[in-house]
Write a structure and sequence with these properties.
Layout lengths: L1 H10 L3 E6 L9 E2 L23 E5 L5 E12 L10 E3 L10 E5 L6 E3 L4 E4 L5 H10 L20 E12 L4 E3 L3 E2 L3 E2 L11 E4 L3 E3 L5 E6 L7 E7 L2 E4 L7 E2 L3 E5 L12 E9 L9 E6 L8 H23 L2 H11 L7 H16 L6 H16 L1 H13 L17 H7 L2 H4 L7 H12 L4 H14 L1
Parallel strand pairs: 2-8, 14-21
Antiparallel strand pairs: 1-3, 3-7, 4-6, 4-9, 5-8, 9-10, 9-11, 9-12, 13-15, 15-19, 16-17, 16-20, 18-19, 20-21
């Protein structure tokens, strides 16, 4: 009968479960000499608006239970889980004990949350003393013994260990198997701290890769970090050396080439930091790959633009250098135009000469004056007669004195029409006489001169 009761108690024995794990990152282990609170361990589901704490729950049959006592201590992260020299501090932690002890009635509440529970780290010279205190408290949940030293202990990571003692209704005592939590890492340690990308100086680059990027981040170890680019099944590493990690808070790296070099539109990928030792990753940020541009600095486009501007400027300058009279003479001498076609050609020539003469930016008054001059030239019969005679004879056969006087003609125009032998005759004039001839040719002729011109022209015809 006694054996049956014992078997029934084993089968109906409750169990201890961690229902809210502690948050693994973001908590700083503080020394006692800092004189400040060690903070509070938050729950894994804690948010900025909803704070939670680590919690345990008694599950199973509790009818025969009277009271539950839970002792919380720190153990090493890796098995075998030995007592850790760091201490727990808080309102449920006796002064100097380094452990937390709570008692509660499971009939009132099966769950208990550990509020204001902090971790206080111990200085290296006090590690042995702290472990000796655990022995005196009989804190060794997994019976690991104390043969090993502290040389192989990770001082930047711990686990919470929950030991549960049950007080039954009949006064007997029982205990449950110890339960451990997930690891808690020291925030200030670079080997275990939470990874975070703070800023990228540029988040766009060509799909060919090799874009140099400056990354600001939380503290990292130069020999224990890598940068991962991802999109779907594609993954590639950013290129950098250990010397490119500056003071643990900045990394200069080059982007890897994207898997598709023939992009036609922008593609977004994720970038994350990953610690090699524990494969811990940061929250990703976005990087955009751009289609390949063989001329990123637009050298060819600028070169074409400069060439076009240069050609336009030269055309404008060439047109401006030649006087309007020379332009008219050159146009009509190169095109053998019959008298019947002259009015039509004149209508088409005046806008063309005006366009050649005046480029964008010139004064409109000057353009208007030159238009008037060209119209006067085209309306002068002597020009048409003279050009017709040149085209029919192939040159000047009459002496210079018999040539008709042409009003309002520039000296450059006369120089183009006369042969070289007649151009040399101007050398016999002095400067004053030459200027007088130029002024007479540019001033409007008198009425008697116009009649003389008409008479001479009729005799020649």
């Amino acid at each position: 009968m006694a054996d049956e009761d014992y078997l029934q108690r084993i089968l109906e024995k409750p169990k201890l479960v961690v229902v809210e794990e502690p948050k693994d990152r973001g908590m700083r282990f503080r020394y006692e000499c800092e004189g400040r609170s060690a903070g509070s361990i938050l729950g894994a589901s804690s948010t900025d608006t909803n704070k939670t704490q680590p919690a345990i729950e008694i599950q199973g049959h509790i009818d025969h239970l009277k009271k539950v006592t839970v002792t919380v201590s720190l153990v090493t992260k890796d098995p075998p889980h030995r007592p850790h020299p760091h201490c727990l501090v808080g309102k449920d932690c006796p002064n100097g004990s380094g452990i937390c002890v709570v008692k509660f009635n499971p009939h009132s509440s099966r769950r208990h949350s550990f509020a204001n529970l902090g971790i206080q780290c111990v200085r290296r010279k006090e590690l042995d003393m702290s472990l000796q205190k655990r022995r005196s408290q009989n804190i060794d949940p997994f019976q690991t013994g104390h043969s090993k030293g502290i040389e192989d202990m990770d001082m930047n990571a711990v686990r919470l260990c929950f030991q549960c003692e049950l007080e039954l209704q009949d006064g007997r005592m029982d205990s449950l198997s110890p339960v451990i939590s997930s690891p808690i890492y020291d925030k200030k340690a670079t080997t275990t701290s939470q990874l975070k990308i703070c800023l990228l100086n540029q988040s766009r680059g060509p799909c060919t890769g090799k874009t140099e990027v400056y990354m600001l981040c939380d503290k990292v170890q130069k020999d224990d970090i890598e940068i991962i680019f991802r999109q779907g099944s594609w993954k590639a590493n950013g290129e950098f050396a250990q010397t490119d990690v500056h003071r643990q808070i900045a990394i200069v790296f080059k982007t890897p080439p994207y898997q598709d070099q023939d992009l036609t539109e922008e593609v977004e990928v994720s970038v994350a930091l990953r610690r090699i030792s524990d494969q811990m990753e940061s929250e990703p940020v976005t990087f955009t790959y751009l289609p390949h541009n063989p001329d990123p600095y637009e050298v060819k486009r600028k070169r074409r633009t400069r060439s076009n501007n240069s050609f336009t400027d030269k055309a404008c300058v060439t047109a401006e250098i030649a006087p309007a009279s020379d332009q008219a003479a050159l146009f009509f001498s190169q095109n053998m135009i019959s008298p019947d076609e002259r009015p039509h050609v004149a209508q088409a020539t005046v806008p063309a000469l005006a366009d050649m003469r005046f480029c964008e930016g010139q004064d409109s008054n000057i353009a208007a004056n030159d238009d008037v001059l060209i119209n006067e030239l085209l309306e002068t019969p002597e020009i048409w007669n003279l050009l017709s005679e040149i085209s029919s004879t192939g040159g000047f056969e009459q002496p210079p004195d018999s040539y008709p006087t042409i009003p309002n003609m520039d000296m450059n125009f006369n120089a183009n029409l006369y042969p070289n032998s007649y151009q040399q005759d101007f050398s016999q004039y002095s400067d004053m006489q030459f200027n007088m001839l130029v002024n007479e040719s540019q001033n409007p002729p008198s009425e008697s001169q116009e009649q003389m011109v008409l008479v001479k022209t009729e005799e020649e015809l």
